Amino acid sequence: MPDSLSDSSCLQIVLHGWGLFELIKGLIKDLDGDDNYETGEDDFKEAQNSVARLIQMLYNDDPREMLKIIHMMKKHIMSGGPKWLPFTIPPLICNALKVLSFLDQVKAFQFY
């Protein structure tokens, strides 16, 4: 993956993110239904870590839109097999926790 995934920038996206997941669907689930991978285990882990960083970088300023993005990510990620989930579920959970934390801060601010 490009070096741009290694910096701390966020990808500002909208619901057109479906195209992103269509583009990387071969990295988040087995398209052939075959567990015999042509790539080595190290290559597989490297690709999954890149996908995890990409998922972690998805962002939208609007919490409602971000929740829609998380829901969209969940649909795509959950279609992956058990070999993929340990890499893709943690960044999804982190994104959900970020939104919940933001909403909690906004809620607390509104009462003051």
Folded structure, characterized:
By secondary structure, this protein is mainly alpha-helical. It has one domain (3-110). The chain is 63% helix and 4% strand. The protein contains four helices and two strands. It has helices at residues 17-28, 41-57, 63-78, 85-110, and strands at residues 11-12, 58-59. It has a two-stranded parallel ribbon with strand order 1-2. Helix 1 (17-28) packs parallel to helix 3, helix 2 (41-57) runs parallel beside helix 4 and helix 3 packs antiparallel against helix 4. It is elongated. The termini are far apart. The mean pLDDT is 76.
Separate helix tally: 4
Largest sheet: 2 strands, parallel
What is the count of β-strands?
A: 2
Helix content: 55-70%
Q: What's the end-to-end separation, in Å?
A: 45 Å
Mean pLDDT: 76
Would you identify the regions where 5 or more consecutive residues have pLDDT less than 50?
none
Structural class: mainly alpha
As for the number of domains, it is 1
Reading side by side through the largest sheet, how are the strands ordered?
1-2
Portion in beta strands:
under 5%
> Any idea what the shape is?
elongated
Radius of gyration: 16 Å
Order of helices and strands: EHHEHH
Q: What descriptive keywords fit this protein?
A:
single chain, 112 residues, mainly alpha, two-stranded parallel sheet, 63% helix
Describe the structure concisely for a colleague.
By secondary structure, the protein is mainly alpha-helical.
Topology:
Layout: E1 11-12, H1 17-28, H2 41-57, E2 58-59, H3 63-78, H4 85-110
Parallel strand pairs: 1-2
